[in-house]
Amino acid sequence: MRIAVISAFPFLSNPGMITVDRALIDVLQYSGIECEIDFFCLEKSFTLDLGYVEIDYNLLDGADQLATFDRILFWGDFLHWKNYVLRDVAPRMVRSGAADCSAAVVDAWYQRLMLEGREDLQRKSIVFGSTIYALTATDLADGRYVAALSSLYANARLVRLRDVMSAGFAAQLVGDGRDYLGCDCAFFLKRREITVGDRPAPSGEVVVAFGRSGSTMLYRGFTERIAEMAGRRTLDLGWLDRTAPLEIDHRIDVVRNAAFVVTDIYHVAVTAMREGTPLLCFARGTAATDSTLSDKKKEILMSQHFARRNLVHQEIIHLTSSSDKTAKALVDQCLETIRDQNHQRAISTGLRRHVDRQVKSLHAAIFG
After folding, report:
1. Are 50 and 248 in contact (CB under 8 A)?
2. Which of 44, 39, 43, 37 is nearest to 18 (CA)?
């Protein structure tokens, strides 16, 4: 079986996006069925060296490239959200000279990623782990977009989106009674032990990773108070450090061995949840949903996996920082959550059960 995998361009070697694509290799290996995988990307061709495996991304020049494949798998990210192409993909392609204008990129997106007018290709397609959670009525006023998205979802063999908001939107757009709730693709990532000779992962530290909410100094100060009260040291994960070697397996191992993780980065939160490590996720409660980096995706992630207690809003941290008494009360609340083993066990058990069901559904759609 030949599978065409269409995924997002991992801009700046984004570790979270890399774990998403790496997880596909793992989840297909679970099936025990041999298949040939070709990765495609709308923006350009390139090779990603992950150490134990290389992923070659082919430039998707047109929908006809997909005709000879048995399955077409749209894998993760914001691939079918209109603002993704308008605000992320098109500007990058125009800046790089890969496209003359944004309108040309949008037309290419409709033809190659939405498979506009190609029901023959849509019928052998699977959409998994993507999100359209930021969809608004303004998007729905665009007749071309609604027609293309609805057609793809209605004709696809399987559509499982990563969050409850997206699943609800898909159900309304198509109205066929199917289950549209999937999970983030990175939840499928297989555990790999670091090889002998690699640096051992620290154990029992408070692992921190910030850089997505614009409040790093506020977060660091608050996290130091939490660590001090817990009697532990903090360790910077360096998830977004572009100057250090990628070493994703080592970073995952650090998360796995942490006492707990404090982060404002979506895929660090996903990693901690997958590895069963207690987590505090910081996010702006008043964040807009006009970009792929909006903090709302973290709020949805935590809520849908029964981890709302582990979400701490930036505004609350800011408000309580003016008084030692209120700051200490918030620290105590956070530590109570982290130390609640029954709460953590319920999160991990529910997540594992849900992810296992998604593996079965995905295998059935691909190989059935």
Report:
1. yes
2. 39
Per-residue pLDDT tens digits for 282-321: 999 988 888 787 899 999 999 999 999 999 999 999 999 9
Assess whether pLDDT exceeds 90 at residue 179. yes
Amino acid at 261: V
Report which residue type is found at 50. L
- At how many degrees (to 10) do helices 266-275 and 15-31 cross? 40
What structural domains does the chain harbor? 2-190 (3.40.50), 206-350 (3.40.50)
Whether residue 290 contacts residue 84, with contact meaning beta carbons closer than 8 Å, is answered with: no
CA distance 173 to 137: 12
Give, as one character, the DSSP assignment of residue 79: T
Residue in the block written with tokens 């029992």? 204
Residue 211 amino acid letter: G
Q: What is the mean pLDDT of residues 81-95?
A: 94
What are the respective helix, strand and coil percentages of the chain, to the nearest 5? 50, 15, 35
